Amino acid sequence: MSKILVIDDERSIRNTMKDILGFEGYTVDLAENGPEGLELVKANEYDTIFCDIKMPEMDGIEVLQRIMEMRSDATVVMISGHGNIDTAVDSIKKGAYDFIEKPLDLNRLLITIRNASDKTNLVQETKVLKQKVDKQYEIVGESEAISRVIDMTDRVAPTEARVLITGSNGTGKELVARRLHENSARVQGPFVEVNCAAIPSELIESELFGHEKGAFTSANKQRKGKFEQANGGTLFLDEIGDMSLSAQAKVLRALQENIISRVGGDKQIKVDVRVVAATNKNLQEEIEKGNFREDLYHRISVILIHVPALEERKEDIPLLAEHFNKQICNEYGQQPKEITEDAILELKNKKWTGNIREFRNVIERLIILCDKVITDEDVRMYGGN
């Protein structure tokens, strides 16, 4: 059951709330002033905190601000017998979940606690999901090759510099792009990914810039493109080397002027987007062949980050095996399997042409097909090539 803190200088209010909420099955702590309440907040986790506004020593608004500094996701409900609309609005602006006037109505009190508990549960679930997502996109490794990538990524992330990520298929270019976003000032904005190689050339412009209703036969309604969807955040253009020349010209204009136009429309739309691009091609060679615009290349490659192939960082294989073992077994709801040292050696001896993507697939295959222990014989049998 929820744990609740009541901060109020009126003993009768404190005791009444403790009796009522205790009868409903809640655990209730009491504080008779702001400093005492803050000490309890430091030492305990509360699902809901009720705080009076008019108190000696420290008023409720200051207590609220201090609580928000300590625990920004705390659920604080302000209570007052002298409240008005301005006070309520001020409380909400400073982070309060709700505002209740005295004398307290029992039904209102219980409904507020139930709603606050739902909010607290959602916050906790969001934290757990974010941790899972962060783990999913973690760059794993301690080799010199991958350490250089991580260091460069973390140096560049807080800036607005455009980044071109190069490397073979399956090396983890998307992980670098996501790390750039997560460590940037745009982290609260969207991260929008476009695989330029997976979209037919005749549709790429509509995908990137959107289209107006009637722009072409199947355009039944107006549609926002990826540039608009990524506004305020990061747009990841994966496999940009496969983009058509006409789309490249429009992307160049968008990067130069921060303005786009939807297909079939003349309206100029302002966008605020950080572009991160990736490719497995040698764009210098593509420029010489006439397949890629040199001016666009210089726009997107302020910073170049090359992600090494797994063949260049085989010393990371033990860490990668442990990481994917835990991750995949967690997805399957089972305990991680033991991987013997001989199995690790066998994994190191293999050629990983598909890089990290292929490596993860092999670990997943071994987890599915092997018993509690994965041996070198298992790797030879199920590891492919």
TrEMBL record:
GO molecular function, one term: ATP binding
4-aspartylphosphate: residues bearing it: D52
Gene3D superfamilies: 1.10.8.60, 3.40.50.2300, P-loop containing nucleotide triphosphate hydrolases (3.40.50.300)
PROSITE patterns, sorted: RESPONSE_REGULATORY, SIGMA54_INTERACT_2, SIGMA54_INTERACT_4
SMART domains from the UniProt entry: AAA, REC
Keywords: ATP-binding, DNA-binding, Nucleotide-binding, Phosphoprotein, Transcription, Transcription regulation, Two-component regulatory system
InterPro entries: AAA+_ATPase, AAA_lid_NorR, CheY-like_superfamily, P-loop_NTPase, Sig_transdc_resp-reg_receiver, Sigma_54_int, Sigma_54_int_dom_ATP-bd_2
A Pfam family hit: Response_reg
Domain of life from the UniProt record: Bacteria
Domain Sigma-54 factor interaction as annotated: residue spans: 139-368
Domain named Response regulatory: residues: 3-117
Listed GO biological process terms: phosphorelay signal transduction system; regulation of DNA-templated transcription
Coiled coil: none
Protein name (Swiss-Prot/TrEMBL): DNA-binding NtrC family response regulator
Organism the protein comes from: Prolixibacter denitrificans
Lineage of the species this protein comes from: Bacteria, Pseudomonadati, Bacteroidota, Bacteroidia, Marinilabiliales
